[in-house]
Amino acid sequence: MSKLLTANFMRLKKSKLFWIISAFTAVISYFALVDAYETNKKLAAWHAGMADSAFVPTTAMHMLYSLTPILGMLAAVMIAIFIGTEYHNNTMRNKLICGQPRVRVYLANLLTCIFIAVLFYLIPVVITLAVGIPLLGVPHVTSGSLLQLLLFGIIGLLLSTVYASLCTLIGMLVHNRSFSLLTGVLLAMGLLLCATFCISRLDEPEYYSDYVLSMRPDGSQEISASEPIKNPNYLEGNARQLAQFLYDFLPGGQAIQIANLDVAHPFLLMLYSLGITGVSTLAGLAFFKKKDLK
Q1: Interatomic CA distance for residues 128 and 77, integer angstroms
Q2: How far apart are CA 15 and CA 11, in angstroms?
Q3: Which residues, in sequence order, are bridge partners of residue 213?
Q4: Residue 120 to residues 18, 24, 183, 249: CA-CA distances in angstroms?
Q5: 80-99: per-residue pLDDT in tens?
Q6: Residue 214: what pLDDT?
Q7: What is the Cα–Cα distance from 251 to 73, expressed in whole angstroms?
Q8: Average pLDDT over residues 116-132
Q9: How far is CA 202 from CA 68, 186, 195, 256, in A?
Q10: Residue 257 pLDDT > 90
Q11: Is the C-alpha dihedral spanning 243, 249, 252, 258 positive or negative?
Q12: Is 5 helix (H, G, I), strand (E, B) or coil?
């Protein structure tokens, strides 16, 4: 196992794509912080003349996990190319010819891919702490809020292993790099879009008010609100429970919750991540043992 991991990390060290994606995450994180800083200045100037202004500036803590939703797509691109190159260069078959068990080969690649996903997750966090704190400042931090941020960080680390395990499963079973890349990226985007749809339905108000335009006797117009009307798009019962379950269970939903610092069931999300990682790893091992590599 150690030899396989050493070879993988040597390949990773020489991978131009790995360094490009790492630099990309750092750059977009930096520009996101600069954009938040410029937006804060504009809004602060606009609210300065308002006596009852409730303006709350964006701080570094608000931006700490803001890039988590794109983690799946970044990991899918890197992992598909990384594993697909082994098939393309016959490295995978050579490892088995040299006597390496399939289980070790799979687990070595999985551990390497987990490292990749975790690194892509942590780079924006480190940039935010290093640049965002001096630039945007931090709110009053209590021990409770600090523990909450650390808890969200742990959920993000487990989410990284979920994306790594799913992408490893695809990469190890699909020997074509292009098809593996397309499948992984579409899966990550699909999970994110499905989670976005779930939260949009969950955020539907139960009631809404309609507005009626009427004319006064003096000829002026009057706008009045009607009685609250039941929203037909509001989810109830089993449909709402299903949408909430999918939003918590799907990696895309977890990524959105972490980015928004709004996690209602943190330990449940951890349990889901561990379950997805375990099931996908066991399934990958089972199928890879039977895969014909000739």
Answers
A1: 24
A2: 6
A3: 223
A4: 10, 10, 20, 21
A5: 999 988 888 887 888 878 88
A6: 60
A7: 12
A8: 94
A9: 21, 24, 10, 14
A10: yes
A11: positive
A12: helix
In eight-state DSSP terms, residue 194 is H
**Closest to 78 in 3D by CA, of 121, 137, 29, 33:** 121
Dist. CA 165–CA 153, nearest whole Å: 19
- Locus of tokens 């706008």: 223
Measured in degrees and rounded to the nearest 5, phi and psi for residue 224 equal: -130, 150
From 58, 64, 61, 60, select the one nearest 123 (Cα to Cα). Answer: 64
What 3-state DSSP class applies to 294?
Answer: coil
Instruction: Express each pLDDT in 182-217 by its tens digit.
Output: 999 999 999 999 999 999 988 888 777 666 666 666
Two tokens at 252?
Answer: 């895309």
Q: Which residue has the tokens 């561990």?
A: 274
Alpha helical stretches, state H, the chain: 2-14, 16-47, 71-88, 91-97, 102-127, 133-136, 143-173, 177-202, 237-249, 251-259, 266-290
At residue 226, the pLDDT reads 62
CB atoms within 10 A of CB 85: 16
In Å, how far from its chain's centre is CA 2?
Answer: 30
Count of CB atoms within 10 A of residue 50's CB?
A: 9
